[in-house]
Each structure stands twice: as C-alpha cells, then as structure tokens.
Amino acid sequence: MADPIINLGILAHADAGKTTITEQLLLAGGAIRQAGNVDEGTTQTDWLDVERLRGISVRSASTVLRCGGVRVQVIDTPGHVDFLGEVERCLTVLDGAVLVLSAVEGVQAQTRLLWRALESLGIPTLLVVNKVDRLGCDIEGVVRQLREECSPRLLVTQQVEHPGTGQCQILESPGFWEDALAAAAEYDDALAEAFLEDRPVDRDSLLASLRKGVADRQVFPLLFASAKLGRGIPELLRGITQWLPYAPDREEEPLSAVVFQVDHDPAMGKAAHLRVFAGSLKNRDSVPLPRGEGEQKITQIRRFHGQKSQDIGVIHCGETGAVYGLPTIRAGDVLGAPPPREPCCLAVPLLQVQAFPQSPEELPRLLEALGELSQEDPLLDLEWVPESQEMLLRVTGNIQLEVLAEVIGRRYGLAVSFSRPTVLYKETPLTTAVGEEVYLAPKPCWAIVTLRVEPLPRGSGIQFESVIKEKELPYRYQNHVGQSLPQALRQGRKGWEVTDAKFTLIGGQSHHVHTHPLDFFVATPVAVQRALVNSGTALLEPYTRVTLSAQEDLLGKVIGDMVAMRGAFDTPILRKGAFTLEAELPVATSLDYPIAFRSMTSGKGVYASEFIGYRDCPPGEGQETPRRGIDPLDHAKWILFARNAIQ
C-alpha cells in the first residue's frame, strides 16, 4: 500500500449530527468543495431518494478523503434503530470508529448499544460531542454521563467557550498534556514512572503511547464539535489520523474479504461492497464463494464516493471497493479465509409482516424484488410459502416498512402493502425427550435417526452434539444431521422458531447400498418434530428495555400504562419537573405504545428502547401460528415433498 489506510465508521444515535459531521470531514479533507445539507437533501452519503426525502440515513455509504498522507475510507452508517442491520455489517470491516453524541441529549439508548458493540469487537474509538452550539447543551453533564455509562478512561482533549450559542469556540484543553500523561501512565509503565517522578516527557513519545493506548482501547479521546457551524472539524480529522490505527499490510497472505453491503445496479448487476483484510482482488479473478457455491469470476471493480464511482481494476489489502460478477453473493458473506473479527449481533427483527402485491399478476415481480432486497439485507429473511402464496418478511419497525415500500415503488415500479406487524414469538422444549425416524421406504433409501432434546437456559440458542461412533453411523451422515437442524427448527409444534435447546444424536444407522446421500436431510426433520411432540414446547416472547422521559405530571399515567402492559420498572428519577423511568416490557403489549406516548407528551417526551432477550410467556398470553408448508409429521406427504415428488 502506497499510503496508510484507516477504515473509519461514523456511528451515532439518530439525530446526533453524524451525516453532517461526515460532510464537514469530507470538506476539511478536500474531497468536496462545499458541504451538503441534510435538510436540503444535498449530502454525499445520503443520496438515495428516500434518504433525501426523509432526511435520514437508511443505508451505509462509502467515501474517501485524505489527510496528512493518510487515506481515510469513511463509512457513514444509519442512525435510526430500524436500520441497525446496516451498522452491524459495517462494524466488521472497521479499523476505528467515531461515536457521535449530541451535547443536548447526551448518552441515548442506541449510544449504549453501539458502545457495547464497539467494546465487544475491540474497535478503537474516538468520542465526539456534537451540537455544542445548541441552546440547552450540557457539556459537563454529557462528559460525566460518558464516564459513568461508557468508560472512565476518557481523555478530554478540548474545552468549549460560549457553549449553547453561535459564538461557541472549541480550543485545546489547557491541561491536555498533563491529562494525557496521566491517562497514558495507566497502561504505559515507562510513562507511569515519569509521571510519578514528575519528570518531563517528550511529546512525540507521549503521542505514540496514546496512539497505542487508543488502538488497545485503553484510552478514549473526547472531542467537541459544532458540525452545523464547521467548528472542531479540522481538529477531529487530525485526531482521526493521529490516534486511530492503520489497516495492517497483509497483501502477501491468502485472500480474506468481508461483504458489508450489497446493491443492485440496473445496468451493471449486483455490486458487492467489501473490505479486503488479506491478499488482493483484481478484475477477472475467480473468487471462492461461501456456502459451497464454487467460484465466480469478477467482471469489474469500482470505488464509490457516495453515489459516484470509478473503475479501479484492483482492490489491495486494507482497501474497500465494490466488485461485480458475483450473482449469488449476500451481505455479510466472507470470501476466502475468515476475517480477524467475528460479526456482532445488534439488530434483532422482532416483527413479521406479509407483503401483498397490488394485483395477482404482479406477485412474481414482487417476489423477485423482495428476493433481491433480502440479499441486500439478510435480516429481512424472505420466506415464500407456495401453498398459501404468502411472502413473509422479518422487520424491526414501522419506519423500515415505510422505507421498504418507497424503495420497491421507486426501484421496481411496484406498489406493495403490508399486513399489520405481528410479534415473532419463539418456542422451547419443556422436558428432555427422544424422537426417532426410521426411513426405509420407498426404496432406494435407508436412514435411521434418534435424537434427544433437552431444554437449555434462556439465551443459549441451539446446540448439537453426537455421542455415537463412526462405526455406528459414518461421520459424514452425522454431519448431515447437524446441518439439517437449523432449517428443521424454523418451526416447532406451535409454529414458531425453536430455541434454547440441545439436540444430541444418540443413535443412527445407514446402509452401504441403500442409503442415498440426502436421506438424513429427509429423516432428521421428522425425528426433530417427534422429539418436540414428546417433550412439549412452551412459548417465549421478546422483551425490550425502554427509557421514558417526560413532564412530571404524567408519571402516574405512565406507571399505570407500564402495569397494564405487564412491565417491570425501577424507581423513577425526578429532576427539574421531569421524570426518567426505565422499564422492561413485552413487545406484544407495548407495540403501539411509542405512538401513544408521543401523543400523550405532545411530541416532547423521549422514548428509547433496546431488545434484551426472550422470556417465558405467561399462561394465556402469546399465540400459536399455523404451520407453513409441509409438516414432517405428515409422514407420507413429507417424504414425497422432500424427494421433490410434489411441489
């Protein structure tokens, strides 16, 4: 690589000013001549029609700027909670992040969620408190909140004069170098000795130590900005190149790349936006695809700057770009060796909707459109039920649905409507039980599967283990049983996905002549469902943790609402005529409450929520859902279906 590279993510809670900061960074780095405006729909990274109309980011967008010989590849991510899936995929490709907060709202629900994700992935992070020019900003309060809720290892690098006014000025903190030495002394033994002995320290050595400390998440520089006025931006750009680590040079190693976004271009086809961690990619290279899909040849490589792009022909190690010619690729796919960082889970769709075309004749086109969009956002998880002609999608909220309808209309020229969202329940086994399938007819076939199911603690997911030996059942067939489980558990006996269970293969048999390689994929779902019948299953429902703030005279009404919704809540905090209340609520009972709360508070209240997991559903609550497709316990029909004898 000719120049050092930093792959930078700009992250924030909605309305913290993230996209405006991105625009100002591009201006400061010389990438654009004039900063765009979110309200006017002229920003570089919010270029989709739906983004410009709504003034929000719904897709991540890439662009590039340069500063001091460093190439900064910027990924601007959505801030709205409904589009966390985009953020989740981008986090896996970053070298560093800038987490933006508002000086008025401070640490919000999504700020906490993003911070925990950055922490779990070990991503070096700079913190920026934006909107220091806004009336009502509380800089000291936000800094205190950050120390309490994120990390005590903040390094406040600046001070703000005349905060809350258009005359605000951002200056270097008078005690910065002393504070920097004290911060570095916490993890650098040599500097700790100098600090204790009150010896002077060379500033270049101190900056080098701080750079390493940021890379190791031992210290978090905190800066201030007014993106609207362009103040604090040059200092932020200098801090990004000064403190965040560069992408390592692993060009001579085997290919490792992650697809963090997929787009469909009407003229050029599918574009897979990826970051190369090792090796390189060139036009005409054959790329190993995931899921055993063989290889595909790259037809073109482009680098994007917002909506604009240029043909570059090659992506070197550490770079991002878009490759064409990979028709089966999906967002989140890994090409080649695994990347250094495992993906995290931020977005959990808790709702399901059915999509309806405007007329029956448009159903095939709508199905194809939703299939493309599911490749761009795998969390949509399109499920097509041919028996009932249903198209089912998983979504996170109403804003996502509204945006989805607009995208389908503008991109595909189709009108679509959706059913009212229903909550996605799950189910789990009640007791330990065994299920068996003896699949010996119609010939040729031979597969015997005996599975034991047992319940696990909440949040455990699905586990699989085999306790039988190769001589009883060849390992390749044991692997087939394990590979069959995810699909077999998409619907339990109550119609919902099964979770928090361990399946153990305790018996099995094949035949050296009659067994077909696919027989265990036919037999396993039957054994699974029989085990669930014998164990019985219970419903689980999703819960969210909500934070509500409003005027104090509404507290009694809100507490009454919490009780009615089966919520559990802490003692509210009262301050200056307002309250803040934290509660844990079932999604099923609180689905429409954000709208009711906004109406109750005349739009002045603050309502934020985050998913916290699935819990046991009380007797009489929750609902079962009809099975979609062929039930494996409808034995004869299932075997015909699994063997492609019926559609």
Mean pLDDT across the residues is 89
Widest beta sheet: strand line-up: 2-3-1-4-5-9-6
Annotation field: number of helices: 17
Uncertain parts: none
Most strands sheet: 7 strands, mixed
Alpha carbon gap, first and last residue: 53 Å
Radius of gyration: 27 Å
Q: What is the approximate shape?
A: globular
Considering DSSP H and I runs of 4 or more, what fraction of the residues is helical? 25-40%
Question: Which class of secondary structure composition applies to the elements?
Answer: alpha+beta
| Number of DSSP E strands | 35
Query: Strand portion, in percent?
Result: 25-35%
Task: Walk me through this protein's architecture.
The chain contains 17 helices and 35 strands. By secondary structure, the protein is of the alpha+beta class. The strands form 8 sheets. A 7-stranded mixed beta sheet has the order 2-3-1-4-5-9-6, sandwiched between helices. Strands 25, 29, 31, 32, 33, 34 and 35 form a 7-stranded mixed beta sheet that branches. Strands 16-15-18-11-10-19 form a 6-stranded antiparallel beta sheet. The mean pLDDT is 89.
Brief write-up:
The protein is of the alpha+beta class.
Features of the shown structure:
647 residues, alpha+beta, 7-stranded mixed beta sheet, 17 helices, 35 strands, 30% strand, globular
Give the helix/strand layout.
Elements: E1 5-12, H1 18-28, H2 49-54, E2 61-67, E3 70-76, H3 84-91, E4 96-102, H4 109-121, E5 125-130, H5 139-149, E6 154-156, E7 158-161, E8 169-172, H6 176-184, H7 189-196, H8 203-215, E9 220-224, H9 233-243, E10 256-265, E11 269-278, E12 281-282, E13 286-288, E14 295-297, E15 300-305, E16 308-311, E17 314-315, E18 320-324, E19 334-336, E20 351-357, H10 363-376, E21 383-385, E22 390-395, H11 398-412, E23 416-418, E24 422-423, E25 426-429, E26 433-439, E27 447-455, E28 462-466, H12 475-488, E29 497-498, E30 501-510, H13 519-535, E31 537-551, H14 555-564, E32 568-569, E33 573-575, E34 578-586, H15 587-590, H16 593-600, E35 606-616, H17 635-642
Parallel strand pairs: 1-3, 1-4, 4-5, 5-9, 6-9, 25-29, 28-30
Antiparallel strand pairs: 2-3, 7-8, 10-11, 10-19, 11-18, 12-17, 13-14, 15-16, 15-18, 20-22, 20-23, 20-24, 21-22, 25-31, 26-27, 27-30, 31-34, 31-35, 32-34, 33-34
Helix pairs in contact: 1-9, 6-8, 12-13
